[in-house]
Amino acid sequence: MRTARDRHHRLFAFLSGITAASILCIAGAAAVAPPAAADDNVITFGAALSTTGRDSREGALTKEGYDFWKDYVNSQGGIKIAGKLYKVDIKYYDDGSDAATSAKLVERLITQDNVKFILAPYGSSATFAASAITEKYQVPMVDPNGAAEAIFNRGFHYTFAILSPAKKYLQGILELAMTLKPRPASVAVLAANDKFSLEVAEGISDFVTKNGFTEVFYSEYPPDTKDVATLLTQVKAKNPDIILGSGHLQDSLLIMRAAKDQSVTSKVIGFSVGPSTPDFITSLGPDANGVMGGAQWTTTLNYIDPLFGNAERYAKLFEAKYHHIPDYHNAESTAAPETFQFAMEKAGSLDPAKVRDALAALDVETFYGRIKFDSRGVNIYKPMAVEQIQNGTHMTVWPADAANASAVYPLKAWGQR
Amino acid sequence: MGTALTLYLQVLVNGLLAGGIYAAAALGFSLVWGIMNVINIAHGAFIMLGAYASYWLFVGPMHLDPFLSIPLAMAVMFVLAYATQRLLVNQVVRAPLLTTFLLTFALSIFITNLAQVFWLSDIRSVTTAYSGSSFALGPITVPWIKFWTLAIAALLTLALQTFMTRTKLGRAIRATSMDVDAARLAGVDVARIYALTFGIGGALAGAAGSLASVSYAITPTMGDSFVVRAFIVAVLGGLGNVNGALVGGIVYGIVESFGACGSCFPGVHFLGEGFKDVIALVVLLLIILFRPYGLVGKATA
To answer: Quick one: which of A171, A183, A296, B89 has the fewest CB in 10 Å?
Structure first.
């Protein structure tokens, strides 16, 4: 008969087996990857990204953007700093979509892996947490995905965001709405209660009151919500002209489904995050048609880039490598390390303080837009675009000078989209 | 009568229907916890696997309807859970609760990450021809998918209840949960009963996964939030109580739905979608305080 002691021995053997296996794996990985500091001809960047957890999809898009830049730069010979060519490499950790973990891993990148240049994690919460670390160690960080104002209102000097701030995210849709006939008037706002989404919602409210719209419904929801039926029941009762959702991809999908379930109709529906990703269209099929999204970038924007030529060429090269058209997460995540590159070339040095000063003084046009930072580290030039899904593809409908289609308005009835 | 009453009724129906998926998610979880005293954190990962099973069958050449793939998802998950119990959980099943908790927690992380490696973190969806269609009950809208989800959750509950009370195997399972040593003396093969129970729990997770696949985005991490709700619903309904999971699921759904309805109670500012989790958990606390054996269970000495 087996005793408790035996069982404990078996458990112990089992667990120690697992431990030994993991140690071997880690040791193996360490042996394969040469320590960053040892190679003088390589600049190593570091990033803690969400490979697992609820932001893993957005994290993967960010990583594609970073990796695309890395491979492109290396294929062109590298970065030239003070007459010497350097290859580039990026060291990644998985933050599990947890902001506190992200900050810890950034600290580890700086203190243990000797990384002197940080590429920001995905999302405002993680970037907020990580920026406290980069500030503490005076290591510059370029941020492609964290748009919440809260990140920049702490007097920090080492965080630089290339994207438009959160408040602007959905204002483009309202600007567009002002040009539509008959002009829509009432707005319903649904916001996830995280830093970024709440600021997007605040931006909507600001714009609404200044421009003659009325906000007829406003509600926040928890980020891991499973059921938004009751939220949409309440929206339906208010019968708004415009429904704006400020959340993330999965929430946007839930809201779209619940809206169809209950036949909630509006003339315009738009989301801060969701419509730009390929998954939105594959998930919803024809129901995705007519949906608008605030976009940091679209392939039709006409900017000249010293590295990739222009937005169109970037999109072509990207699609050849990853077999999908780059969405704005991809684009901004390529533009972030590119911004670092321009600053390093200008500084002519790999000293973090000098690179920081070069970032602060930078004024350059890239495929992603013109990049120049204010004293808080926010890009002062970049406008937001609006995309609308028409016949299963993304069309740019705003601003008017970059649009390649006019907006479908008002939205067709469910079942006819 | 008018729009206000319509609103309350619709919110009630929303909650009732949402309860279907919560009940389905909790059924197997509650069974395993009640019978084996194992808090199976990997239950969420099992639900995720069930959802992927339905997804692959739907997009594959057979183009199988997700509701029809439920038996297949259940069969696959039964085998997987049975094997998991035999190979892993059985090693520690009589160890303190924390040990099995940690083991299933690790298992959950392992399965989720394995899924991430093989299937990537792409968001997938099962969009059927009837997705988004609904029928009207007077002024109330009832989406077909949610209606069938609730109906199948009720059917699974009935089937499990019949199995547990009417069959010899079911009685052996209940006997084992009451007194392991007495059951063993009476000739019950306890190890096999445990594996069967875990297998049934897995099969029910598979069914919940199939049901979830039509309503939710399918990702490797989708199980995490289900396991949290399964935990709450299992405690609400009473551990191991088969009917309790259904009642608990529906009660949780309704409380959450009214908690989310800021417009139902004008002037009350602590209600609304942002507070619904708080309200649902306050209800859970109250039930633990006043009815620690759950809504359906009976007090025991």
So the answer is: A183
C-alpha to C-alpha distance for B148 and B161, rounded to whole angstroms: 20
Nearest to A83 by CA among A351, A349, A357: A349
Q: Considering the domain boundaries, does residue B102 fall inside one?
A: yes
**3-class SS shares of chain B: helix, strand, coil, % to 5:** 70, 5, 25
Q: Establish if B267 belongs to a structural domain.
A: yes
Q: What is the CA radius of gyration of chain A?
A: 23
Do residues A78 and A59 touch, judged by C-beta distance below 8 A? no
**What ipTM is given for this predicted complex?**
0.85
- How far is A347 from chain B, CA to nearest CA, in Å? 38
Residue B59 structural domain: 3-290
For A168-299+385-402, the fitting CATH number among 3.40.50.720, 3.40.1160.10, 3.40.50.2300, 3.30.390.30 is 3.40.50.2300
Residue B230 covered by a domain:
yes
Residue of chain B whose alpha carbon sits nearest to that of A288: B127
Digit-coded pLDDT (tens) for B26-74? 999 999 999 998 999 999 999 999 999 999 999 999 899 999 999 999 9
Chain B, 62 to 81: residues with Cβ < 8 Å from chain A are none
Please tell me which of the candidates A56, A237, A282 has its beta carbon nearest to residue B263.
A237
* Interchain contact A285–B (C-beta under 8 A): yes
The letter for the amino acid at B151 is A
Q: Which amino acid is at B187?
A: G
Judged by DSSP in three states, A279 sits in: helix
Q: Burial, B186: exposed, middle or buried (Cβ in 10 Å; 0-12, 13-18, 19+)? A: exposed
Tally the C-alpha atoms within 13 A of residue A115's C-alpha that lie toward its C-beta: 26
Q: In this complex, which of B10, B116, B272 lies closest to A233 when CB atoms are compared?
A: B10
Cα-to-chain-centroid distance, residue B54: 16
Within-domain flag for B296:
no
Interface with A, mutate which of B150, B218, B221, B269 (most A CBs under 10 A): B221
**Alpha-carbon radius of gyration of chain B:** 19
- Residue B178 burial (10 A CB sphere; 0-12, 13-18, 19+): exposed
Residue B97 sits in a domain of what CATH number? 1.10.3470
Tally of domains in chain B: 1
Per CATH, domain A36-165+301-372 is 3.40.50.2300: yes
Residue B4: how many CA atoms within 13 Å on its side-chain side?
A: 4
Tell me how close the Cα of B298 comes to any Cα of chain A, in angstroms. 31
Work out the number of other CB atoms within 10 angstroms of the CB of residue A330.
27
* One pLDDT digit (tens) per residue for chain A, 417 residues: 444 445 455 544 544 555 544 544 444 444 444 444 446 899 999 999 998 877 888 899 999 999 999 999 999 999 999 999 999 999 999 998 889 999 999 999 999 999 999 999 998 999 999 999 999 999 999 999 998 888 999 999 999 999 998 899 999 999 999 999 999 999 999 999 888 899 999 999 999 999 999 999 999 998 778 889 999 999 999 999 999 999 988 899 999 999 999 999 999 999 998 998 888 999 999 999 999 999 889 888 888 999 999 999 999 999 999 999 998 899 999 999 999 999 999 999 999 999 999 999 999 999 999 999 999 999 988 888 999 999 999 999 988 888 999 999 999 999 898
> Is A326:A333 a contact under the CB 8 Å cutoff?
no
